[in-house]
């Protein structure tokens, strides 16, 4: 438990107030909010301040990039980011101008942080966006930017006004949809469908992924079947399921092998999570891994970054959720399925997965 977590609630409030006053001293007062919608013309330079650095959060910003391409097709986008894989994920978006990488801990790397903050402040943007509903760091970075219009969520954890603020909706918590909702609400739009995450894989990358899968199956002399289903068995913290859980799950899933070959996706550790019982594929390169995933008929996965990578590739994803919120983190592509596993026997979870796979077989 961190020291800050045991401080009285009043101390947290006092610290936020002091931080806000210090920010005002350094930056001046926040811009005044306006009541008119964001303009849909005249915006050519856009900045996104995104401080979340996990793989999943990085991928879940891509729906906003797609929305910006549709709303401002002639604009260039800069992204201030702490993600170490931002180039791999955003680099194929045509409207991307540059990434401004920030260290995960600016105190430990002050010169890198100051250099990219200086690069950011050298540009006067037409629109700067803080897409995060909770992070105060992203709001501080937004306030440092020079921009005609500043857009962000309003809420108790967001200190510092913007020209266009949007209340956090009570009926929407999806990490991928919220930034799109923010832009649409501020610009007076209300489209029904939300774009899913997209890695923008090229036809060449997908072709190379198919060849990689064929080589793996040939090396293991796997018999030809109707298709291939991948399994990713790694996750962090309480989302990780023990080997005994997987043993029972895979035993109940065994009938699926009448139609499909199974392929393990090996995690970044380079160690099989399933006892090396199936052919396996490993790559430390996110785009190469995603390219191979596109050749699968489906991926069975725990709630992890690879789940979001599969959804952005895209490949039909059967996502097993335990302790995390499906409303916040669940995939929402038209071929993605969420399976609840909390407090359920692994055999019952496997039955749901098996039924979903058989339904795909009958409709194929």
Automatic annotation (TrEMBL):
The lineage of its organism: Bacteria, Pseudomonadati, Pseudomonadota, Gammaproteobacteria, Lysobacterales. It comes from the Bacteria. It holds the Pfam family Glyco_transf_9. GO terms for biological process: lipopolysaccharide core region biosynthetic process. GO terms for cellular component: cytosol. Keywords: Glycosyltransferase, Transferase. GO terms for molecular function: ADP-heptose-lipopolysaccharide heptosyltransferase activity. This is ADP-heptose:LPS heptosyltransferase. InterPro entries: Glyco_trans_9, LPS_LOS_Heptosyltrfase. The keyword Glycosyltransferase applies.
């Amino acid at each position: 438990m961190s020291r800050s977590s045991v401080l009285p609630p009043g101390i947290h409030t006092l610290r936020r107030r002091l931080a806000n006053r210090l920010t005002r001293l350094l930056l001046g007062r926040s811009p005044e909010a306006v009541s008119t919608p964001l303009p849909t013309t005249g915006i050519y330079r856009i900045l996104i301040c995104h401080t979340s650095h996990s793989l999943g959060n990085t991928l879940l910003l891509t729906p906003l990039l797609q929305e910006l391409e549709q709303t401002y097709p002639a604009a260039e986008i800069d992204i201030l980011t702490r993600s170490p894989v931002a180039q791999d994920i955003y680099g194929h978006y045509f409207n991307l101008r540059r990434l401004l990488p920030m260290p995960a801990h600016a105190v430990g790397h002050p010169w890198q942080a100051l250099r990219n903050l200086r690069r950011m402040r050298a540009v006067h943007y037409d629109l700067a966006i803080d897409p995060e509903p909770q992070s105060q760091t992203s709001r501080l970075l937004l306030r440092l930017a020079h921009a005609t219009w500043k857009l962000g969520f309003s809420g108790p954890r967001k200190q510092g006004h913007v020209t266009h603020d949007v209340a956090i909706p009570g009926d929407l918590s999806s990490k991928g949809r919220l930034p799109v909702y923010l832009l649409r609400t501020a610009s007076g739009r209300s489209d029904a469908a939300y774009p899913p995450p997209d890695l923008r894989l090229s036809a060449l990358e997908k072709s190379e992924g198919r060849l990689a899968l064929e080589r793996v199956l040939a090396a293991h002399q796997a018999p030809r079947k109707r298709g291939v289903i991948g399994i990713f068995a790694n996750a962090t913290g309480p989302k990780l399921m023990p080997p005994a859980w997987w043993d029972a799950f895979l035993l109940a899933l065994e009938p699926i092998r009448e139609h499909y070959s199974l392929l393990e996706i090996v995690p970044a550790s380079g160690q099989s999570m399933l006892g090396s019982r199936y052919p396996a594929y490993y790559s430390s390169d996110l785009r190469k891994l995603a390219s191979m995933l596109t050749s699968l008929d489906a991926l069975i996965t725990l709630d992890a970054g690879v789940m979001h990578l599969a959804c952005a590739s895209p490949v039909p994803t059967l996502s097993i959720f335990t302790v995390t919120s499906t409303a916040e983190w669940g995939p929402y592509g038209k071929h993605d399925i969420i399976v609840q596993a909390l407090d359920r026997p692994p055999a019952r979870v496997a039955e749901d997965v098996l039924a979903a796979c058989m339904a795909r077989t009958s409709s194929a």
